[in-house]
## 1
Amino acid sequence: MILIAFVVLASSCADGAHSGNPSARAGSGPVIAAVGDLVCAFGTRTPPHHSPGTADRCQPEKVARIIRHRDFRAFLPLGDLQYSYGSAWRFFKYWDRYYGEVRSTTRPVPGNHEGYNGLFMGYFAYFGDRAHPPGGYYSYDLGSWHVIALNSQMCRNRVWGLHVHRPSDTTSTGYTHWINPIPGGGCKPGDRMWRWLRRDLDRHPNSRYPCTLAYFHHPLFRASRHNINQRDLDVLPIYRLLYRHGVDVVLNGHTHNYERWEPLDPLGNRDPNGITEFIVGTGGDSYQPLPRAGDLPKKIDAAQDTSYGLLRLTLGAGGYHYRWITAADQPAFRDIGTGLCH
């Protein structure tokens, strides 16, 4: 696999999308860390065993060390916290090994791997009320910001099931398939989470909260070697709600690279009042190659697919400061800048 690090960039805004002095308005405020696609416990045995990892796969300690050794107000895991499926024993045995020390500041959202075999039961068993069962979506305030955590697996309205072949079957080790819809799932207008999100946004308008951030696992826009400009239409209805209410930043995982998109509307058009999307699927599971440099969508301002690390955000009174932090022993990459709220 050929890996490409593309665009080493520091910018105050995209294409002049914001005016004023971004540094002054970003100011000081709560500092948070965000990253998804994290702790590995792979294996084909029954029960599966923990993989020691390889040079380019299953390296959760690299990012966990950054989280444990820095003082973040909140840690936002962006889904797929525990591989290959998030059963309770895996969370207690593996996730807790790396991130148990920062449990009190962890504000998680689930991904597709938390949905294996039991509708997020292991995820909820470990995090308890902090994960806000049964839906896994909630909101809170940090400084002057309103922050919204969503369960984008609900948008698919179905979860993965893990099929393990009998020991006598030597042709395959197992596969995944979709199983029953999630009770109350869906993200279309009128569905449970969509209704909740609309109420939450109405109760926290821009007149009271000049800055709003949302995070969930599946990105609307993403790029990979095999699908240069992919869109996840399952999350489009909630994205439209977020855009309509002036949300400033969306954080996602799922794609195992780092991408920062310029402000866009839900159809992918450049918009100075659009949402800036960060994809931070670089928690240590694996690298997912970006399109070749000449094929990368022009609306991506910065991207890399060779380094594990996380996004550091400072949530200021009228804007934000972002900085990519590369994990130890990973290829250097730089993306640092500021953005203003609408």
## 2
Amino acid sequence: MTQHMMLATILALQALGASSAAVADEKDKLVGTWKLISAVSEDLSTGQKTNIYKGTPVGFITYGTDGRVMTIVVDSVRKKPAASVATAAEAEALFRSMAAYAGTYTVKGNQVTHVPDVSWNETWTGTDQIRDYRFDGEHLLLATAPSPNPYTGNMSVRTLVWEKVK
């Protein structure tokens, strides 16, 4: 092996190690509890951005060092049932104004994949919920792949912005 080939091999291995370290650093940066500060849907046909919820969303997502994730998001305009037991209409309104699940997560590149073991909506349980993620200062941005908006059916990307709880 020539000196140039040895140097190229060493540099390639160092770059690979640096790349692995960067991925590990990004995953470590996810660990902890994050508070939701905004949730926006962008309609891909028009470019129009709208708030996903009617009021200010309230929510938390927690990434554990053990590879577990838990999240709950609700709309701040949810109405408390009139009695101690919700009517069918009240229960439906409460269900439709939230999202919650817990499961595992993995990180690969700029994507985090959540796999719910349990969810408020059984269609998510056991599925891969893939989110592009990036950090913007102290904020974590999680964005869906282009998919039908669950409220309008229009193709959209939904982006949730989170702030680390200190």
## 3
Amino acid sequence: MDFAELAELDWLHDGPGWPLSAHSRFVTVGTLRWHVQQCGTGPHLVLLHGTGSSTHSWAGLAPLLARHWTVSSMDLPGHGFTSGRPAGGLTLPAIAAAVAALLAELSVRSPLLVGHSAGAAIAVRATLDGGIEPRGIVSLNGALLPFSPMLALLFAPLARALALLPGTATLFSRRARHRSALQRLIDSTGSTLPPEGVDRYWRLVRSPRHVAGVIEMMAHWDLAPLARELRLLRVPLLQVVGSSDCTVPPEQATEVAAQVAGARTVMLEGLGHLAHEEDPARVAREIEHWAGTLP
């Protein structure tokens, strides 16, 4: 089907069919009511999804990692089933602080942090700010560096303008409810997802509330301060990079590695920006192998 009405996400309606919903619960911390999933036993590992996604992104990877870790994931503020806004809005420092507060509430200490795209930036920001003291950080196609100066001049003002326009989220959702438009967007990441993977994103983009959160986050995202401070990162860093990533240029990993002492980079040939959704077993093996080398 290529067409569907817009519909806000509702846990009573959508929750029973959501990936790993048996492991879901809702946790209120401050102004946020978080949708959280936890599974497995052992040391703590935290999964942080990227912009526009949700816990569904970990449907294949989380159960594999849960063989060795207690795995926690959550819908980030403005995304999925999480409601409310952190103090400071949907900026990188505010979201990082909110995630740190949630993990403290969940008694998650000294975790391994695994972040995809913008989720990697959140992991690094929370670590540099002292909110989380992780054993290590895994950056999955991490978006840790700003756009080129030219793109930044175009993108940031446009995103801010869209965030201020009434009805923008609804307009985007109406466009994206055509499955063919969403399929083109996913294809543009360099990844190939099975139909059920596309279905999960399709459900998200039909929610104007989710789309509004994504636009707001993009409008306030500033990676320049993080890029300047990468050299201060003192925890082990593994970069897992899809060679076909068309969203975050793979060569950025080389720039990051030059700034972070001891950083290791693994290139996954043939996988795109959503590598962990395309081949979760391959990504799990890389994380498990690297984690086994940590002190």
## 4
Amino acid sequence: MSSNGGDRNRDLGRLFEEKRRADESSAPSLRELIARPRDHRAPRARALWRAGLAMATTIVLLASVVLLRARMSRAPETQLTPVAAQIAAWRAPSDVLLQTPGSDLLSQLPVLESHASETATVVFEPTKGVER
């Protein structure tokens, strides 16, 4: 290591030591800290903040319930306007191209038949440990 690097390290160490001593000298003693009266404003402020938050939450919930009930109480519109009915009934001319051979199988559930009587007649011979 060069002497220049060593000088910098010593200078930094000295500066940190001076800063630590300055901080220690400005700190109050433990007896002074214990003797100080406690500030009771902070818990009151926290309680007011919590109460305000609870009130705001309650107001938002009540407004949501009122709006939802108002929306649900409206009679549902069961009849479409003529334009909407015409749009809903429209079919693209190219829909015919989507009907491919076997596409009807995709719209039906498969029927699985039970062949219990056939499987009952099959006898499985043990093969493990049997010489061939």
